[in-house]
Amino acid sequence: MIVSPSILSADFLNLERDIKLLEKNGADFIHIDIMDGVFVANSTWGPSTVTAIRQITTLPLDVHLMINQPERLIEHYLATKADIITIHPESTVFLRKSLLKIKKYGAKVGVALKLETPVEMIKYCLDLVDIVLLLTCDEGFGGQNFQLLSLRKISQIAKWRQEHNLTFKIEVDGGIGPETGKLCKEAGADILVAGSYVFGKDIKTAIEVLKKV
Ligand code: DX5
Ligand code: ZN
C-alpha cells in the first residue's frame, strides 16, 4: 500500500521535525489538508505553508483542498509545486474545468468526495483523474471513526475503474488504521491516508504496519 501520513495530526510547532520524521521512516507522500472554515468547520493552512513545506522535503506533497470555490486558488496551489492537488465536486460548479487546469500544469489530479456524497457525482470525470479520494469519516478533524458505508463506495469506484480500463488510484482518508486499512484494501483502495494512527504511536512501526495491511 502507498501510505500518505496526514500532518493534521503533527505537532504544528514542530512541523519541520515531524515531516522529516515521516520522510526518514518510509512515508510515501505527505498529506496536507487545506481547510477554509467554510467548506469544513475547521481551518488549517494556505499556499504559503505548502511552499514552505516544499523547501524541506522531496516527498510528493498530496494536497487535499477542502475549500469552497477552489478555482479561485488553484493557481496559487499549483505554484507551490505540490505534486497532487485534490478538489471536491461539492465545493465547485467548475469541476471539470478545474481538474483540467491542474492537469495542464502538470500536477497529478485528484477528485475527492465527502462521506455522504454519492459516488455518481464523479462518474463523469473519472477519465480525467489520477486519484479518487474518498473521505471515510466526517470531514474536518483527525481522530474520528472510520465509517463502514465507505466500503461500498470504494468497491463501486473500483468496479468502474475496471470496467472502463482506467488507472487512477483510490485513496482513503479518515479513521484509517491497520484493520480499517485492510478492509479498504480488500475493497480496492491503493493509498491510505492516516493522521492520528501514524502520530499516535511509533511513526516507523505505524507506517510499516500500514504498508503491509
Ligand atoms: C479529515 C482529513 C484527514 C485527517 C485524517 O477531514 O481529510 O486527512 O487528517 O485523520 P485521521 O487519520 O486521524 O482520521
Ligand atoms: Zn485529507
Automatic annotation (TrEMBL):
Task: Provide the E.C. number(s) assigned to this enzyme.
Answer: 5.1.3.1
Residue positions binding substrate: 6, 64, 140-143, 173-175, 195-196
Q: Which cofactor does it need?
A: Zn(2+); Fe(2+); Co(2+); Mn(2+)
Question: Does NAD count among this protein's keywords?
Answer: no
Q: Which amino acids does the record list as binding a divalent metal cation?
A: 31, 33, 64, 173
Catalyses: D-ribulose 5-phosphate = D-xylulose 5-phosphate
Cofactor remark: Binds 1 divalent metal cation per subunit.
Q: What PROSITE patterns does the database record attribute to this sequence? A: RIBUL_P_3_EPIMER_1 (PS01085)
What are the GO BP annotations of this UniProt entry? pentose catabolic process; pentose-phosphate shunt
- EC main group: isomerase
Cite the annotated pathway: Carbohydrate degradation
GO molecular function list? D-ribulose-phosphate 3-epimerase activity; metal ion binding
Q: Which UniProt keywords apply?
A: Carbohydrate metabolism, Cobalt, Isomerase, Manganese, Metal-binding, Zinc
* Active site: residue positions: 33, 173
The record's InterPro entries line, in alphabetical order, gives: Aldolase_TIM, Ribul_P_3_epim, Ribul_P_3_epim-like, RibuloseP-bd_barrel
Gene Ontology annotations for the cellular component aspect, listed alphabetically: cytoplasm
Record's function text: Catalyzes the reversible epimerization of D-ribulose 5-phosphate to D-xylulose 5-phosphate.
The UniProt similarity line reads: Belongs to the ribulose-phosphate 3-epimerase family.
Q: What is this protein called?
A: Ribulose-phosphate 3-epimerase
Its source organism is Irregularibacter muris
